[in-house]
Amino acid sequence: MSLPMSSNDSLHAVIRRAHLRMAGMAISLAGVLLLLVGVVVLRLYLLNNLHLMARSLAYTAEASLVFNDRDEAARMLEQMLRGEDVARAQVFDERGQVFVRWSSGQSATGGAGEVLAAVIGMQPGEAEVRQNGKPVGRVVLYSDGAGFVRFLCAGLAVLALCVGISGYLGMRQSRRMLADIAEPLQQLARVARAVRHDRSMDQRVPAARIAELNELGDDFNALLSELQMRHERLQQQNSVLELKASRDSLTGLANRSHFEQRLRQALLDADQAGRKLAVLFLDNDRFKQVNDVYGHAAGDALLRAVGERLHSLVREADLVARLGGDEFAILLYPVGGVDDARLVADKIEEAMREPVVTGTGVLLNPSVSVGIAVFPRHGRDMETLLNHADQAMYEAKLARHAGHAAIRG
Ligand SMILES: Nc1nc2c(ncn2[C@@H]2O[C@H](COP(=O)(O)OP(=O)(O)OP(=O)(O)O)[C@@H](O)[C@H]2O)c(=O)[nH]1
């Protein structure tokens, strides 16, 4: 059976409509057939009944006809037919003349029964009146069709009840089917939507009662697990790449581009929040000599050691970076002002007093020159601040070059 469907019909609506139609059609068909069979059987029964009644009247009317007593015949008809499903009765004498008539008057069905009886071809019930085997008259009875009307009313009421009950059962059945078929599909759609819109791959389709749908859900879940695994692997690889892209490979500190990115963000934030930040620019003193005298590996060891010491001196929120070569930078945010930044610079100088021992046992005296720039006092943008700090560092280095030895052998 094909059902007309609009593209927006839900599965629930389709199942419910199909159930209702099937139940309605089945019950209507069965009901109409039963009514037809019932009418045929009832017609036979009523006809038989009418004949029996006519025969019994024929026995009773025998005396009235023989003694030509019409009053007695009329009384007898009234007595015997009142309350029966008979509309009219006629008693004929032996010449075929009407001897007496009887009518029930206003019928309970208002005439509809008689029309119905005529429609289904209900014939009158007849019986001969005999005396000593010789016919002396005839009794004819016409049905008032009340039996048919009662049967039809009861039949239609039962049919309506059956349609109602089957409709209700159909709805219940469709609800159960909805739970078994539509709900797993809805869950599948919900999870697919969550994956598509929110990229949330940790949701799974619950188990379904129907084997095929359960298998579909399992396959979908397996696919999701695979996708989730790949997604997590990609995320891990991305974060490793991101980390690599923002780190200096020698010291493990932030590199220049990451430092500049963080500095830009911090400047925006400090500007909005009315806070201060400081940039410390650091350059190793006479670093070239380390490389020249002890080799590049010793120079690397010194750079790593300086990086570690710088990192250990600042707060978690601050950022230490190697800008390249023997240059480092520190972002202090938030900071109280120039004095706080100077305190950090002093701590750096203090930390550099401790010599560095390389893997090959070479003892190196680290020394760095530090320049300070504070936002907003020395500049409001990154370039100005870095230039200022660089200039300050250069001046500090000039002062240092006077006497400090960078290498102690
Ligand atoms: N070992 C090592 N050396 C590096 C690295 N990157 C740059 N250098 C060297 O570091 C030296 C930096 O020297 P400069 O800053 O120009 O000079 P300096 O000797 O520190 O002199 P001042 O800064 O004036 O005190 C150069 O010789 C570079 O070749 C590195 O990753 N490892």
From TrEMBL:
CDD domains: GGDEF, HAMP. It is an enzyme of class 2 (transferase). Residues 275-409 form the GGDEF domain. Keywords: Membrane, Nucleotidyltransferase, Transferase, Transmembrane, Transmembrane helix. Its EC number is 2.7.7.65. Residues 179-232 form the HAMP domain. Pfam families: CHASE8, GGDEF. One of its GO terms (molecular function) is diguanylate cyclase activity. The keyword Transmembrane helix applies. The chain crosses the membrane at residues 20-46, 148-169. This is Diguanylate cyclase domain-containing protein. It comes from Comamonas terrae.
